Structure formats: structure tokens, C-alpha cells
Amino acid sequence: MKAALVGADGELLHQARRSTGRERGPDSVVESILAFAADLRAHGEDHFGEPAAAAGVAVPGIVDADRGIAAYAANLGWRDVPLRNLLSERLDGVPVALGHDVRTGGLAEGRIGAGRGADRFLFVPLGTGIAGAIGIDGRVEAGAHGFAGEIGHVVVRPGGAPCPCGQHGCLERYASAAAVSEAWARATGDRDADAADCAKAVESGDARARAVWQDAVDALADGLVTALTLLDPRVLIIGGGLAEAGETLFTPLRAAVERRVTFQKLPSIVPAALGDTAGCLGAGLLAWDLLATPTHPASEVSA
Ligand SMILES: [Zn+2]
Predict the structure, then answer these.
(1) Is the C or the N end of the chain the one with fewer CB within 10 Å?
(2) Cα-based distances in Å from 245 to 32, 110, 200, 241, 253
(3) Distance CA 224, CA 213 (A)
(4) Residue 5 CA, ligand 1 centroid: distance in Å
């Protein structure tokens, strides 16, 4: 878990990391979060003369932000955890915002990171999987059921590789850091070879690596062109482990997207700027948003 005290302009005042305690079960993770938040509150009192005025928390899985409930997170074993109320109780009634991890990270990239000032952006982290955050005028679209932005499960290779989501040929089966690692391990016969190794081999001119890499870039471009045809973003922010390859990824990716568009406007395609602190900073922004909009339902918790 990453946590921070965040100032009004998104400035990072204090940062800390801690284990979730996941191996001790779902309730233990909740307790770890509550204890971490309480310690942060104490840190604020000790070092800044006052505790945080509001709190934000971003969690994976399916999030019902309006009700403040972490509805489902397979990797944490959570179902319907009323995280907003639990946190507010532990923090003496301050307002608490709950967000989805990728959308919250996207909020931070859009407002204070790589998309700073962009009125329309799409944030796509390429990690173990691929997700997306659709930024519209300073907020991130969650969709009617909290599922918006799942570009990793856009089918780019019909009839292709099976995906745990139940479909075949999903983007994340071809262009996630995990998929590139798998493909490169297969190509080299080295089970420990990963996407970063593949990027290095591309840079040194290895033909097999270039083929593996280009397959991923082509799949990614196919998925992104679908997204930009629908959304017309001004900025396309690519993050996650695969984006750490820098221009080894961005140069061929920009070319592949450019080759595919016809009538669509090309967005600028840029690397994410906030790294793995994006979600943490975004949670801070959500908290500040609560203070700016006192009519938000979450503020009822503090009454
Ligand atoms: Zn899928």
C-alpha cells in the first residue's frame, strides 16, 4: 500500500508504504488500511499542526464510489466492504472518498501529471493487465456500473488467445507487460525472461525480440485506435511496466497508431509522469474534491 499526505495543489507532503497484510485474510487488509490511515492522520497532526481534513482511498476491483463500497476484489478476497464508513469512523468523522485504482491514478495523471491541463484524455497503464481511465473535463468517467475504461478487454484478435474474462483475443493477452514477458519467454525458451529483457533485446537489434515487440505494438495500436475513434482524446497517456521501455515503445507505437487512423484526429501519445504514486496522489485529489463540493453524499458521513 502507498499512502500520502497531499496538499491543496496536489503537492506531496509526506509519503509512506506498508504491506497490506493480505496473507492474513480479507479482514486483515481492511484493518491494515484503517491503521495506516490513522497513523497518517497522527503524522499530519505532529508535523503540520493539524490532521488531514479529508481522506481518499483507491482500491482495485469493482468499486461502488457513490455508496463508498469496495464491491469486489478477487485478489484481496473482498466482497461489499463498506470502506468509506469504516475509514470515516476511524478518522473521527472526516469525509472520505473511495475510488477505483486505475481511474484514480488516471485522475492524477490528467490533472497534475502527463495530461496536465488536457480537457479530454485517456490513461492506459500496461502492467499485469491493461486498464483505462477516461478523463473528461477534470473528472474520470466510471460508466453506469463502474466498468468504463476496460480497454484491456477490447477484442483485437477475434478467435485469439482465451482471456480469464471469458472472451478470446482481448488486448491484454497481447500487449500487457505480462503478455510480452510470456511471449518473450516462449521465444527464447528462458522462463525467467521478461518484457524488460525483451525491450533490451529490441534495442540491441535482436530480430526475434523485434518480432515479439512489434506484435505487441500492433495489438496495442489496434486497441488504442478503437478507443480514440470512440473518445477523441486530446492526450493518450501510456503508463505501467511496459511504458518504462521509453522510446523503444513510444516511437513504434506512435507510428503504428498513425498508420491506422484515417479520419480520426491523432492525440499526442505520451508516457505517464507519476509512476506508481499516481493512484495515491489521485486519492488525495478525490479527498480535496470532497472539500470543494460539500453537497457530495460522502460528506454525510461526517455529520
Ligand atoms: Zn478479456
Answers:
(1) C
(2) 34, 21, 8, 8, 12
(3) 16
(4) 35
* 62 pLDDT higher than 90: no
Q: How many alpha carbons lie under 13 Å from residue 114 in its C-beta half-sphere?
A: 25
DSSP 106-165: HHHHHHHSTTTT-SEEEEEEBSSSB--EEEETTEEE--SSS-TT-GGGSBSSTT-SB-TT
Domain range list for the chain = 2-103+276-302, 115-273
pLDDT of residue 293: 72
- Looking at domain 115-273, its CATH superfamily turns out to be ATPase, nucleotide binding domain (3.30.420.40)
Q: How far is the CA of 195 from the centre of ligand 1 (A)?
A: 20
Q: How far apart are CA 183 and CA 185, in angstroms?
A: 5
| % helix, strand, coil for the chain, step of 5 | 45, 20, 35
What would the pLDDT profile of 269-288 be if each residue is shown by its tens digit? 999 999 999 999 999 999 99
Separation of CA 166 and ligand 1 centre (Å): 6
Q: Tell me the angle at which helices 83-90 and 26-48 cross, rounded to the nearest 10 degrees.
A: 40
- Kindly report the pTM of this predicted structure: 0.89
Q: Return the C-alpha cell found at 30.
A: 481492511
Q: Three-class SS of residue 266?
A: coil
Residues sharing a CB contact under 8 Å with residue 254, sequence separation 6 or more, in sequence order: 269
Dig out the grid coordinates for 237 from the structure: 497517456
Q: What DSSP designation does 204 have? A: T
Instruction: Give the CATH H-level superfamily of domain 2-103+276-302.
Output: ATPase, nucleotide binding domain (3.30.420.40)
159 CA to centre of ligand 1 in angstroms? 12
Cα of 126 vs centre of ligand 1, distance in Å, is: 14
Q: Which of 86, 83, 33, 35 is nearest to 62 (CA)?
A: 83
